[in-house]
Amino acid sequence: MVPGRLSVVGTGIRPGGHLTREAQHLLRGADRVFTVVDGLTLDRLRELNARVESLQDAYAVGRRRDDSYAEMVRRILAPLDEGAHVCAAFYGHPGVFVWPAHEAIRQARAAGHRAVMYPGISAEDCLFADLGLDPALHGCQSFEATDFLLHARRFDPTAALILWQPVTLGDLRRDAFEHDPEWVKVLAEVLAADYPADHPVTVYEAAVFPLDEPRREQVPLNRLHEARFSQVSTLYLPPAAPPALSAERLERLGISESELTFGAYQLHRRG
Ligand SMILES: C[S@@+](CC[C@H](N)C(=O)[O-])C[C@H]1O[C@@H](n2cnc3c(N)ncnc32)[C@H](O)[C@@H]1O
């Protein structure tokens, strides 16, 4: 068997500007291209390579997403056995919340093919830019919303909190493509143990077209269940309070508070 080659690339969030030169080069040179993107992004991929096959038909309302993903992986891997260079394109960063991308890489390598993932611009990258969030200042935690709700995670409310995929809250069968407001109420109650009831939560949606504005809708935590979530909504909670300095560690390191000039400390001291 001549080993095949799998390149997994991201298209970014805005197809016009986010598709890296590296991804364009790989897409142009591939024997086959598989993708789940649609609309303008799909058109852009077709400009780069005529042999683009959409995997959108693997999705269907009522079909479990895990079955759709397994079908995608099968279709991506099939041409590798003929020694082909296959490029699989996913939106945003291909390794961020994209199970079929990681699974295709894993299975391709296990079958003796060469497989590489190339980074792209994720929704979180856009959020840092649009909401003016620098993770160096506060620290930043990022969770899948259902995962966060169902596990008693230890997280830090003095750092930024990003919750992905709120639209899937309550979609336990992973086949509905919409959320259950009752689950959102429970999420808000869980969060209220660590944040004030009126703590601002931003429902964030990065713009997909260059001239559009991002959606940055703020709702108080106790009214989160009234917010509208789409397939591309991400939630952002700013820190509730500054982090507490460890007097014990300062003493151990032989330094005083007045000597600190970095990160969150610098920000909080400036007010
Ligand atoms: C399956 S994940 C895909 C993430 C994508 N691979 C990335 O790198 O951003 C889908 C989730 O990403 C987030 N997302 C996708 N597009 C977004 C956008 N335009 N603005 C904000 N968040 C977005 C939402 O949380 C959405 O539920």
From TrEMBL:
- Gene Ontology MF terms: methyltransferase activity
Q: Which residues form the Tetrapyrrole methylase domain?
A: 6-207
Pfam families (UniProt xref): TP_methylase (PF00590)
Q: Which Gene3D superfamilies match?
A: Cobalt-precorrin-4 Transmethylase, Domain 1 (3.40.1010.10)
State what protein this is by name: Tetrapyrrole methylase domain-containing protein
